[in-house]
Design goal:
With 295 residues, the chain is mainly α. The chain has a domain at 1-104: Tetratricopeptide repeat domain (Serine Threonine Protein Phosphatase 5, Tetratricopeptide repeat). Helix content is 79%, strand content 0%. It has helices at residues 3-18, 22-35, 40-52, 56-69, 74-86, 90-103, 108-121, 124-137, 142-154, 158-171, 176-188, 192-205, 210-222, 226-239, 244-256, 260-273, 280-293. The chain is elongated, with a radius of gyration of 27 Å.
Length: 295
């Protein structure tokens, strides 16, 4: 057995994997395990390569072999957990991520995924627990704050959600998307002045972001400031003239302003660009009603 040759194949495979040359990496890893059937790391990498290629059944056999050779290796459990997560085997993925954490409490990736999986299962207390551990381990990773914020939104704990999103701003002050998310949360709970500030900051950072522009229009509409709302909906239509949302919202604004002919035209544009919209019949009836108003 040429152990050095097997190690060389393993190293070349890792290099290929880092360059996203998955098939070449897989060939090298397989050469390594053929030469040295006790090289657990190579078996684990074959499993990872197969997972990256979407061949999860093949991946599992190699993950199992790697763990049988080195049952105390935390990374091997994490790689198998990633494969299990991809195929939707949440219970076993949690088991492997938990084992990873037991063997290596510094593996914050495992902790982060435990937070996500427990959240998907509806075990929110466990999810919050693991996200907070992940933050403690790696306070510079914005993903932890983002998912924790999402979780608090799902739980209708909006102040806590905003607190988490603002921690992302501290890390990434130019992240327009987070300002927009904060704006949506404030709007949802009726804190419209703060929503306006957040949306305006998002628009300052990304002046042509379609959704932020539409959300600003929606906010002004909810404040009965129809001309201001219309200004933003028109701007949205310029950016995405084929998107039905701006046309629909403009129509509603025109109705509120008593500009019936323009409202009818925008409703027709909405139907043109969204032929399968679930509210299509309702919109057609609205058009008929408006037409009767001007005849």
């Amino acid at each position: 057995m040429n152990i050095k040759m097997a190690d060389n194949h393993l190293l070349r495979g890792i290099s290929y994997l880092e360059e996203f040359e998955i098939e070449l990496a897989l060939e090298e890893f397989k050469n390594a395990v053929e030469i040295n059937p006790h090289l657990a790391e190579a078996f684990s990498y074959v499993g990872k390569a197969y997972t990256d290629m979407g061949s999860v059944e093949e991946a599992m056999a190699y993950h199992d072999q790697a763990i049988s050779l080195e049952p105390e290796n935390a990374v091997f459990y994490r790689r198998r957990a990633e494969t299990l997560q991809k195929i939707g085997d949440i219970e076993n993925a949690i088991s492997d991520y938990t084992r990873t954490f037991e063997l290596d409490p510094s593996d914050y990736e495992a902790i982060y995924h435990l937070g996500i999986l427990y959240s998907h299962m509806g075990s929110f207390d466990k999810a919050i627990e693991y996200f907070n551990i992940a933050i403690e381990k790696d306070p510079e990773d914005a993903r932890h704050f983002f998912y924790l914020g999402n979780l608090y939104e799902d739980l209708h704990e909006y102040d806590k959600a905003i607190e988490q999103y603002r921690k992302i701003i501290e890390l990434h002050p130019e992240d327009a998307n987070i300002y927009s998310i904060i704006g949506k949360v404030y709007h949802h709970i009726g804190r419209k002045v703060e929503a306006l500030e957040a949306y305006e900051k998002a628009l300052e950072l990304t002046p042509e972001d379609y959704m932020t522009i539409i959300n600003l229009g929606n906010l002004y509409f909810s404040m009965n400031k129809f001309n201001e709302a219309l200004k933003y909906f028109k701007e949205g239509k310029k950016i995405k003239p084929d998107n039905p949302t701006a046309h629909h919202n403009m129509a509603v604004c025109f109705v509120s302003l008593g500009r019936i002919t323009e409202a009818i035209n925008e409703y027709k544009q909405y139907l043109k660009y969204s032929p399968y919209a679930p509210d299509q019949e309702d919109v057609k009836k609205e058009i008929e009603k408006l037409q009767r108003m001007i005849t």
